[in-house]
Amino acid sequence: MNNIGQILVQAQAAHSADDLSLVINNLQQLILADTHDTANSEQLLELALSIFELGDFQQRWDIAKVLVNLGNVTINPLIDILEDEDAEDELRWFAARILGELQHPEAIMPLVELLKTSDDEEIKAIASSAIAQMGTIAIPVIVELLAQENTRLLAVRSLAYIRHTQTIAPLLSVVQDTQASIRAAAIEALSSFHDQRVPPILLNALNDLSATVRRTAIQGLSFRSDLSSELNLVAQIQPKLYDFNIEVCCAAANALARMGGDDAAQHLYKALISAHTPITLQLEIIRALVWLESLISLEYLQQAFNQVTTETLWQEIVTVLGRIQKPELKTPATAILLEILNSPHPATKIHSMKSAIALSLGQLGNAEATESLTMLSTDTDELVRVHAIAALTKLAYL
């Protein structure tokens, strides 16, 4: 008896003894060694399916890899499991997952039927993902699912997974759907394509009744800074800084940072210092101004520091100034921090603020901060002294 036969005998013996872990180990040896042939496939499949049906989650996870490696001989048995309404939900979930990996056209329709009939959201999600893994051959089938309300959202998500230009037209067909979740999913999927049909859809969605849709549209436009001038995106997005939904506002702040430019910085600054702006949004705007990485955005942060009255905002401004990465902006950022430190501003009386300034000066690494840091190293507060000494140490090694 050759080595292959011996492993098969061992696997069968282990199966008879209900040692499922040993059976899996034996089957994996055969698969990894690629020594199985057509003559052994039937025995391997029988053993693998037995583990698949009887095992726990981990054993099913492990044997799934064996079933994938066995290839097309597993298609029909797995389809049978999908179509068996009495089968465990977990078993059907695994069957759908494996069929997705096998990417065989015969599995598309059974997966579609599972989408239509199952009430389990996890099973429907894995079936949708499995269909998407089929690639472009699955698009016509998925498009049919768009016509049915109970499968439309999963169909949109499946098209999003495929990410092929052939999906643009069907996705465009549902951007005005009555369900906000479908509109949002379609817009998110379309945002990944640089296609001339997409930007008008995103611009229109900025005024959607759904906050989720508006936020998704803003996020999509934020990645099209190449169209900023042509579509006047800064002016289009700026009003969303004052949206009723805080998540939409924060998305707008981040989008303006991606657009860049003095106009974007000015709009962010005005929203930052407004008395009506929630602190959550103010914090997001402070970060956005730093991401702009321009001299004007730093100047706006300095002006804002002198206008806002919340310690949390002071702390954030000082902290983000220390994160400047552009070499040409590190000196201006250092100058702003030193000016704050040496001013009569009430923030300079707070130990945590002095500590944060010392930390940021150390991160910027500008020697001009040495004198001020030396003074901070003798401060009455221990944490201020520690951060000042650490910053001086950094400067010494630059």
Automatic annotation (TrEMBL):
GO molecular function: lyase activity; oxidoreductase activity
InterPro entries assigned: ARM-like, ARM-type_fold, PBS_lyase_HEAT
GO CC annotations on file: phycobilisome
One Pfam family here: HEAT_PBS
UniProt entry tagged with the keyword Transcription regulation: no
Alphabetized UniProt keyword annotations: Antenna complex, Lyase, Phycobilisome
The UniProt record lists the keyword Lyase: yes
Domain of life of the source: Bacteria
Family note: Belongs to the CpcE/RpcE/PecE family.
Protein name: Orf398 protein
Species this protein is from: Anabaena sp
Organismal lineage: Bacteria, Bacillati, Cyanobacteriota, Cyanophyceae, Nostocales
Gene name of the encoded protein: orf398
